[in-house]
Amino acid sequence: QGLKYSTLYDTTVFIHQSISAVYLTLEIAGVLVLIVILAFLQNFRAMLVPATTVPVTIIGAFAAMALLGFTVNLMTLFALILAIGIVVDDAIIITENCSHYVEQGLTPKDAAIKAMDELTGPILGVTLVLVSVFLPAAALPGITGQMFRQFALVIASTAVISALNAMTLKPTQCAQYLRPRPKDKPPNWFASNFNRGFDAVREHYIAVVGWMTRRPLKMIAVFFGAIGLTVFAFSVYPTTMLPLEDQGYCIISAELPPGAAQPRVQEVTRRIDTVLKESPGIKGWNTIGGFSILDSANLSTAITVFVVYDDWGKRPAGLTQEKIIGGLRERLRSIRNATFAVLPPSPIPGLGNASGFQMVVEDRANSGLGELQKAVSEVIRRAHSEPGFLLAGFTTFSDSSPQLYLDIDRTMANSLGVTINDVFSTVQTYLGSTYVNQFNKFNQSLQVRVQAQADYRRQLGDIADLYVKNRLGQMVPLGALIQVRHMLGSELVTRYNLYPSAIINGVPNPVKYSSAQALALMQHIAGEILPQGMSYEWTGLSYQERLVGNQIYFIFALSLTLVYLVLAAQYESWSDPIAVILVVPTAMIGILTAVALRRFPVDLYTQIGLVLMIALAAKNAILIVEFARQLTEEGMGTVEAAVEATRRRFRPILMTSIAFILGVVPLMIATGAGAASQQSLGTVVFGGMLASTLLAIPFVPVFFVAVRGLAGRSVESVPSAAQRPEPRATPAD
Fold first, then answer.
1. 143: part of which helix (H) or strand (E)?
2. Is 361 within 8 Å of 534 (Cβ atoms)?
3. Alpha-carbon distance 272 to 328, whole Å?
4. How far is the C-alpha of 132 from the C-alpha of 258, rounded, in Å?
5. pLDDT tens digits, 718-730
């Protein structure tokens, strides 16, 4: 009684709040999607058809996650958020097509049958494309592969479930729910104005498409020129592994000069406490003296402090992690008798103890710790000389720690019958301690350790007065066997790949350098500075970033190849799928523009979005190409069929695209725990989908006409306005 406790440093708080924030985003995305559907269809009964798709698919997704052994984490929840926009697409397209035929006078049942005759092929094609896109990504190795795998397989699972749902439940619902609009009930004010505006946009859009299809060679040249510039921009754009998250705490690593006494360490600790008390946005802190978080080792001159921020919702407006850490760095500079590093934690727990890069300098020629210290110090000095490069750059390695060297006369020890192991054991027992056994007392198990009293191990001369037993059982003074002298050395020797090594920790300035640029610059500096016999490697998150390299571009190419083969098998044509594949890279334009406007680097979430955009961009193109193929088979000219297919599919494409785009808006503007990851993924998908809708769709008819022309099929001109068939009636007409 009378005691209470509080858990200050708890890394699970960030996880719980991040997942809660994503759940909220999931709910908002679902509501926005339904609002878009209602605005376009203007029929509450029709909206119920795609509305029921979301819960069915999400339940199926959780079942698939359980089957695959996945947990509920950020990657799987991100997949579910994006899946909402994807899975309703099939239902929207079916509902829109059924509504069209109901308004033309067919019964709901006949309308559903006729709609499915037209849409079964495209739905199967889109589903196969979604699955084939993510199969190569799911095979990526390493930690990034594991993250890709969870995202990819959840999306693929929801796509399959959505397709089964769309081809079975949705036609039945359409036949049961849809009713023709009564002729005596005119559209309301919103529906009339919405339809009028939509019709105007569609006619202008189709006019642009017709103009482009009459100039296919010029449009193709413009297209490939834009794609070439985008690919070049991607190749030089700054990259990083993962965005830096605000996980609710940071780490202060302090180190005093080698040999500093404990009173000095305690004084620095008290001054750190004073700085933290005066800093805004800090809830509390845990201090560990004598421990180096960066080395994961006990060092008497090291101090580690875990600084916990106020909860995300309780911080003053505008007080971000960057401002908290910047303020701490500024205030800690006033403590002159120690060096400090204030670091956010690693984006992936377990891959390094803090963010930034970790370069390991290795002494491969056994030049000695002194030479290793010189090389490391010169690399750090050179890195600091680069303007605007490092916010922090340091090493915990030092070869100048005061030590005592025991020079053992092995010949004398052998003549006196004393083994070297006995000498070491004696020094360990008297000066350190030795475990003997355990005993039970007061319902506890207590250890017995042997050690000399403090008065007999306080002075340097006390070592010579210690005694060791020889083989004859006689006591021999250590003073007869050893000589003690002072020397300088390293308190902690790290070996990396069996080589003596020192780790350089650095935090680049995120405004000027991404992590990939920082690694490249450090490689350049190390190549210039390190002498022969010394080299470097990367560890922690930096190693994973270098390991990934440009894998995503090979995955992108392989995914495109699989999509092409799937469509070629479905269309039974090698040429028609080309019109779909060629427009996919337009998503890169939107992705690059979006991340550049928000000054985000290209990271893992950008790569995930890039792969996802293959499927989403291909989805819209498949709808147009499939209808254009059907129209040409009915005898319509290629150009006329391409333009008319674009006209007919414009409404469902625009509806599904806007629903998906608005569904990721909550990700784009996310705040609080996990906001950096949500913003990165949301920005990429938003920009890519916007480009796929505005830029890719006009080029699909162009490529369809060009490919058909190259394949030797008939290509007629675009029909005049008088020859053009009447536009389809909207559900509200």
1. helix 142-177
2. yes
3. 10
4. 58
5. 444 444 444 444 4
